[in-house]
Amino acid sequence: MKLADLAVLAGVSTATVSRALAGHSSVNAQTRARIQALAQEHDVRPNQLARNLRLKSTGAIGLVLPLGHARTQHLTDPFFLTLLGLLADLLVERGYDILLSRVIPDGDDWLDRLVDSGRIDGLLLVGQSDQGAVIERVSHRYAPLVVWGAYRADQNHLTIGSDNVAGGRLAGRRMIDQGRSRLMFVGDPAPPEFADRYAGFAAAAAEAGLACELLETPMTPEAVHAAMAQRLAAAPPPDGIFAASDVAAMSALRALAEARIDVPTTTAVIGYDDVTLAAHTSPALTTIRQDLAEGAALMVDRLMQRIAGHATGSAIVTPVLIERQSA
């Protein structure tokens, strides 16, 4: 049965049938329900591809993790899994398909290829990596682009993310309030979010008249553990460690345990993110929580507004200190 046949049964025009099956509000609820019931009874289904072409819509959203600075990073990282899961659920609830990609940039046109592919209605980027210039350039010509990442006052691209400088300050002040004086930041300070966390932590230390040692390392668990173990073997341990992420903090905890350094008596450790595993380490990890549920909701909401042609800007999520046993 075709839509025209269904229109005769329903006593309405074919256009009304089409709008009713699409759930359009221009058809009153009673008529819409009657047409949808008839369509189900007679197994009439609108051609989704034709509808998408007519509406100039693909019905899909790109969900992309760009890895310019950390090519060994995986989607299985607890932070990425959590945020990607939240975003995917919200997009599916709005009726969108998802095109999930882990992109290792091989040039300056990787983002152009994504937005010009004709396969998506909008794009969510999880992280800026070292691709800020590329993202900024493309954002000037492609509006439905939302990025989880650090905010800069002069940027054009729309970001959602936590106040990483404030989060770093929270970690620093927690250490200082406990009387810690040999402070260390562990992680890769190159990505904007990590750079801001380090800056906030170092600023808190400087305000207290303290130095902040930087243990620069790639962010894989193996690399952080190796760097931490090497550092602990070479000099007296710091008495306060702030890691750029919870996963990095967990690797630091492992290295400290292997070196028989007590946490938190000798060395306090604070992470960032508050992933689910953070509450189950030994000792349980004190961390800076960024509310990923709120962040994901903001990302999807702002993207929908951009797709609809509305102007909307960036938003910053307030970080919170989660006190546990490690610091």
Automatic annotation (TrEMBL):
Keyword Nucleotide-binding: no
Matches recorded under InterPro entries: HTH_LacI, LacI/GalR-like_sensor, Lambda_DNA-bd_dom_sf, Peripla_BP_I
UniProt KW keywords: DNA-binding, Transcription, Transcription regulation
Domain spans labelled HTH lacI-type: 1-55
Record-level Gene Ontology MF annotations: DNA-binding transcription factor activity; transcription cis-regulatory region binding
Lineage: superkingdom: Bacteria
Protein name: LacI family transcriptional regulator
Provenance organism: Sphingomonas aerolata
Lineage: Bacteria, Pseudomonadati, Pseudomonadota, Alphaproteobacteria, Sphingomonadales
